[in-house]
Each structure stands twice: as structure tokens, then as C-alpha cells.
Fold this protein.
Amino acid sequence: MQPDQHHGATPPHGKPGTPGPAPEGPGAPAGTGVPVISLTGARAQLGGKPVLRDVDLTVRSGEVVAVLGANGSGKSTTVRAVVGLVPLSAGRLELFGTPLARFRAWHRIGYVPQRTTAHSAVPSSVREVVAAGRLARHRLGPLRRRDRAAVDRALETVGMLERARDGVATLSGGQQQRVLIARALAGEPDLLIMDEPMAGVDLANQRVLAETLRGQVAQGRTVVLVLHELGPLAPLIDRAVVLADGRVVHDGPPPEPVGEHALPGHDHVHPHAGATADAADRAVTGATTPGLL
Ligand SMILES: Nc1ncnc2c1ncn2[C@@H]1O[C@H](COP(=O)(O)OP(=O)(O)OP(=O)(O)O)[C@@H](O)[C@H]1O
């Protein structure tokens, strides 16, 4: 099945009044900016097995793109390749118009990896974890006032400022996710990449995360979200890229929730084996939880 290509067209959920940090100036509609991510013909192998097979992913300044697909379809590997954590065996990657080999502006990218359930053995405080998000911005030495202010702003954005001195291990999973997002925001990135930000997060924390993301999108931040389903984030998404078995099987408007998947609280788990376009069709259906946004 050929991907339904949709690069750069006006998004179905265009956000009126979005200022956008696009180099072509404020007011440029999402999806019409310069490519922030340009991944073409990407192939990658993990454990000797092909995991990405000719993946194309173009994300333009100001866009909010969901990467969807069943378990094992290659979503995490795709975004890990984008941030240089997985080497490509073929294909080309440019970030902000610069080939990966020459790209140095890592402070422009905030990456929130998939959260593991394992508690950190390192007794870091919330503030220490978030301050690590400034590392790409500031060189060695004590945090300057500007860095500290950015850390405070990020903590405030996710509603964790009062918990700044607490140990991360004392937090719930959802609160830890908020801290990881604050770490990414502390670097004041132009591009925010989040891998399954809602996974394992309770409803109250999902509300905070959704509100945080809404604020980022309103500021014109370019956002890539790996999601199992659009769920409560559906109103924010401009475009969906669906993977199945390491290939893009859809690149276009986000799907409408249908059938049982539209029921609130529907918990979607996909089989690992036999990822096909049909599996991808199932994966793109989203459960909406009313009132989150
Ligand atoms: N480090 C690794 N070594 C070997 N195989 C891996 C590794 N990481 C991932 N894989 C395999 O690569 C394939 C794609 O994995 P990936 O995590 O990208 O999928 P995904 O779509 O993000 O899945 P999920 O929704 O379960 O997170 C899977 O078959 C997975 O088992």
C-alpha cells in the first residue's frame, strides 16, 4: 500500500493565530514552514533485524505530527533515529536543514523518551533532573540566572515547582512524566519530540500534560508525538504518520475515532506480530476522553 502523502499541505486542524517560530516569520500556518525534520528513505536494523524500511518523515516548522502504529511497528525507533540514537543503515536525515553529521544545534530539540517504570537508583531531586535539560544550552560551570529562570519556568509549566526539592523517586509515574517533560522544556527547544507521553499516566496527570502540550502548540512549537492512539490529544494534531512493520502506510489527516475505539476509557493494546496496513488502520483510531482539553 502506498502512503497517502500529505507533506506540507494545510493541516486539517490548523491553529488560527499560531505565532510559530518559523524562520519565514510569525503567522505562517503550521505545515508551511521549512522542514525541521527531513528523514528520507530511512532504514535501520536492531538486533540484526530490519526495523525501519524506507521511512520518510518530513515535519515542518509549527506542525504537530502524531506518529502512530501498532506495537513494534517502529514508532520509537523512528524518533530515536531522528535524535541520532539509532544509526541509519541507509537514507538521509536533516535537522533544521542541516545533515545529521554536521548538526550541532541539539539545544533546539527537546526529547522525552518513553518512560520506563523502573525507579531511578540515583536519588536526584526534581530540580536536578530538570536542570539537566539546560546542559545543551549552557557550558560547564554553575547554572547562570537565565538557566535557573528557565528551569523554574519549565517546572511551573508542568505544575511541579512546589515539588522542586523532592526526590524524583517519591513521585507518581504521571508526576515523573511531567518532570521529564519539564526537563525537555527547560532547554527552550524549537522542536519537541515525545515518545508515548500519556502511557501509564493517570487521568489527573493526563489533564496537566494535555494542557502543557496545548500551551506549547499555542506558542507555535513544532511537536512530534509518538502515540498509540490520538486519544485526548486529538484536537492538537495536524497530521498523522502511521507505521506498520517499519514502513509508512499513511501520511495525512489524523483519523477520526470510530467504533469501540471512540468509547471513553477504551484501552488499546496491539499485537506485536503481523503488523500490516490493516493493523495500522486499527492503530490510528483514537479514544477520546471528554474534557481533557
Ligand atoms: N534494542 C533493540 N534490539 C533489538 N530489537 C529491537 C530493539 N529495540 C526495538 N527492537 C525491535 O524493533 C521493532 C520496532 O520497535 P519500536 O520500539 O520502534 O516499535 P514501537 O512502534 O515504538 O512499539 P511500541 O508501541 O511497543 O513502543 C520491534 O520489533 C522491536 O522488538
About this structure: Confidence is low (pLDDT under 50) at residues 1-27, 259-293. DSSP finds six helices and ten strands in the chain. The first helix runs from residue 75 to 82. Residues 46-47, 51, 69, 71-77 surround adenosine-5'-triphosphate (CB under 6 Å).
